[in-house]
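User: quick one, sequence for these tokens?
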């Protein structure tokens, strides 16, 4: 048994928490659940699976609840999990090795988030800080809380062999309710702390959930104007999502300016996602040669955050460009590279019938 305690906070999660806790069982972690006011079966289910269940009076402060949960653990190493996150993969031997050599750093788990684009379901992967030693770190921020070093220094990070699937709020009403609540807390946090690239990023994310791309773009722009470190994962996500918002809003010149601004930025140029975005902007501007080159470069990357941008999505866009240019055979060749991607199969069928 590894000296790791899983710490969770929960409220009205009876549709998620059982699956979450069942998947953790084989790992034999200590499991702590802190309920913040459920009126459904969350506590009853938690008591069947968790080692300890506590109650915490909700005070509109996620870090306060998180830090309370951490205090209840028997181990100094704590792993933070949300009720709608289901364990997919773990290597316990490598995990033990990792924590042995990274006592003060924050462990980054992999999380796969489902989303839909143009009616097609896909997955976006990200790395988030969830494992830490409570002697050196704690949570800060009343909403979208972050793991921070107790001594105020920038916490180092390390990769850990843990992957979770984020079920999330599947219904649109659930997404809107959560985003509306988050916005209220984020704006309160902003008023207390002043301008913050991270808070602006989270405000933008929640306005995306509400499908208000105007507001989302405004906050992403403000966040990027603070010149946050592009090596940070949230800054990379902010730049890329801002670009997609500008494309959706048909602000192609602004999107091109964004691409030029970060076009020489090594952390972003090292991401398939940014190179793919570059291709999208060139395509929207009608610069097809540059678009094809960018999409081709995107397929050279072995990994990506948004599923398919380094494979079938990039090849599909190249095929679409060739089709627009009347080069049907080239289009067919790239549609075939898309594998079982449904839109590509449909275009191949339509081209064969024409």
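Assistant:
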């Amino acid at each position: 048994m590894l000296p790791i305690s899983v710490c969770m906070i929960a409220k009205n999660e009876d549709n998620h928490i059982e699956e979450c806790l069942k998947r953790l069982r084989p790992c034999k972690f200590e499991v702590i659940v802190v309920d913040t006011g459920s009126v459904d079966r969350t506590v009853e289910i938690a008591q069947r699976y968790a080692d300890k269940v506590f109650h915490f009076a909700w005070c509109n402060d996620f870090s306060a609840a998180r830090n309370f949960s951490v205090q209840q653990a028997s181990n100094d190493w704590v792993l933070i999990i949300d009720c709608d996150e289901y364990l997919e993969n773990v290597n316990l031997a490598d995990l033990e090795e990792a924590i042995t050599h990274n006592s003060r750093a924050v462990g980054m788990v992999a999380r796969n988030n489902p989303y839909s684009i143009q009616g097609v379901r896909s997955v976006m992967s990200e790395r988030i800080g969830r494992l830490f030693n409570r002697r050196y770190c704690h949570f800060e921020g009343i909403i979208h809380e972050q793991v921070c070093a107790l001594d105020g220094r920038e916490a180092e990070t390390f990769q850990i062999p843990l992957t979770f699937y984020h079920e999330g709020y599947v219904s649109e009403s659930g997404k809107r309710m959560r985003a509306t609540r988050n916005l209220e807390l984020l704006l309160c946090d902003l008023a207390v702390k002043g301008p913050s690239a991270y808070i602006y990023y989270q405000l933008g994310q929640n306005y995306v959930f509400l499908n208000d791309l105007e507001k989302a773009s405004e906050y992403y722009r403000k966040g990027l104007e603070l010149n946050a470190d592009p090596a940070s994962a949230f800054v990379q996500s902010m730049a890329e999502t801002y670009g997609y918002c500008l494309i959706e809003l048909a602000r192609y010149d602004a999107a091109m300016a964004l691409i030029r601004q970060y076009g020489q930025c090594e952390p972003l140029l090292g991401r398939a996602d940014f190179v793919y975005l570059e291709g999208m902007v060139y395509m929207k501007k009608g610069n097809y040669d540059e678009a094809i080159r960018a999409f081709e470069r995107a397929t050279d990357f072995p990994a990506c955050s948004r599923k398919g941008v380094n494979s079938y999505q990039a090849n599909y866009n190249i095929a679409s460009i060739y089709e627009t240019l009347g080069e049907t055979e080239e289009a067919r060749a790239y549609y075939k590279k898309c594998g079982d991607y449904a839109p590509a199969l449909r275009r191949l069928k339509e081209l064969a019938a024409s």
